[in-house]
Amino acid sequence: LVFGFLVLSPAGAPADEILVDAEPKGYASGVSGQVLVLEPDASDPKPLADSDPVFEGSRITAAENSFAEIDLLDGSEIKIDEMTQMDVDQVQVSSEDAAEPERRIGLAMLYGALRISAPAGFSKTSAFKITTPVSVTGVRGTDFAVEYESENASTVDVFDGEVAVAQDGAVETLGAEESATAERGRGVTKSALREQRKERWESFKEAMALHATGAAEAGLKEKIERILAGDPNA
Predict the structure, then answer these.
(1) CA distance 146 to 111
(2) Among 86, 113, 142, 223, which lies 20 to 30 A Cα-Cα from 151?
(3) Mean pLDDT over residues 1-23, rounded?
(4) Burial class (CB in 10 A: 0-12, 13-18, 19+), 150
(5) Is 197 exposed, middle or buried (0-12, 13-18, 19+ CB in 10 A)?
């Protein structure tokens, strides 16, 4: 199994090597709470809403008790946890009609946590990479999560498929039900996926569902109130 790594700038640094494409590279869904997006040519962030396009070079920030999903063009689903900031550095996907479709995707997480479902079926020269300030995760096709809440360490949990985790020259390949912690200056430590970590991600899924239900109920209540008030736009 070959893992392709893109040469991207570290998380939070200018990505001088990347040419930003002006076309949308994905769309937002399941947005709940205060989620902001700073687009490449904008001076200030704006609220992110369901169905909003997402562009290369954008920075997405989810506040406390806030969540969002970004659906990329390759079919990947990026679930953004509360208190998370992520840069969409690169999303390039070849035509689905190609004999071996290719993707080159780079995401940079400055803090927080992501749960990612990335479909397989792309060429061996493809690359899908998630960076934190202390680690690099290379992906083929899998269901996994990355969490960076410490200045010196990040954790990768794999639920299905395989990923490669790298830190300061050390690389570990993880399969389903495996986990790894990458520590600055100490390499990568691999282990079985602990029950505590599974519960952490189950809680995340439940929180996203709860907030989505709450947002839907609030929207319906507001619509009913407008109808009762005789709002012609309701």
Answers:
(1) 10
(2) 142
(3) 46
(4) middle
(5) middle
**Per-residue pLDDT for 217 more than 70?**
no
Largest CA distance in the chain: 65
* Cβ proximity of 119 and 108 under 8 Å: no
The owner of tokens 């929180």 is 207
Q: Is the pLDDT of residue 141 over 60?
A: yes
- Output the pLDDT for position 7: 32
Q: Among 33-42, 128-137, 193-202, 208-217, where is mean pLDDT lowest? A: 208-217
Cα dist from 221 to 113, 116, 154, 226, whole Å: 31, 32, 41, 9
pTM above 0.90, yes or no: no
**Tokens at 102, concatenated:** 């290719």
Q: Residue 82 and residue 95: Cα distance in Å, rounded? A: 33
The answer to whether 4 and 124 are in contact (CB under 8 A) is yes
| pLDDT computed for residue 18 by the predictor | 46
What is the rounded CA–CA span in Å between residue 43 and residue 154? Answer: 30
Q: Angle 25-27-28 (CA atoms, 0-180°, nearest 5)?
A: 140
Residues 211 and 51: their CA atoms lie apart, in Å, by 17
With contact defined as beta carbons under 8 Å apart, do 25 and 147 qualify? no
What is the spatial distance between Cα 196 and Cα 149, in angstroms, rounded to a whole number? 16
Residues 6+ apart with CB under 8 A from 117: 76, 77, 142, 143
